[in-house]
Design a protein that fits this description.
58% of the residues lie in helices and 9% in strands. The chain contains eight helices and four strands; from the N terminus they run H-E-H-H-H-E-H-E-H-H-E-H. Strands 1-2 form a two-stranded parallel ribbon. It starts with a helix and ends in a 5-residue tail after the last helix.
Amino acid sequence: MGVGKSTVGQQLAGRLGVGYRDTDEDIVAVEGRSIAEIFVDEGEPVFRAIEKRAVHQALAGHEGVLALGGGSILDADTRALLVGHRVVYLSMDVDEAVKRTGLNAARPLLAINPRKQWRELMEARRHLYAEVARAVVATDGRTPEDVTQAVLDALELKEA
């Protein structure tokens, strides 16, 4: 959350000359409501099922840069589908997250005690991100342009 996946993903797609897609945007478009609204109205399990479908559809039909929601990695089937793809884990620490988002935006999983909850989320997810990632790129203190270049370098990709 707040790591810059959308900004970096769009820049990366532009530099590679490929399309960009974000599964969070897909969910909002299909459902006609925000992710926060889905969480509140339906609960996390329903949202995760919607997210799983969105990710699986995007992986099956998109050839460019694909940004996934941070919790999509929790699903074992999704992790299995990511094998063989060039997955990059954009990382940051809690202090950077506070600077970027204030941890007070409409983020349903951070509604109470956001610093503590962010740390707990990352502790639960970090090993899953690392499990599927070909590269880990730290974003702390870096511009989106620097992060984009670091991703290109880490994956040894050439610009279009």
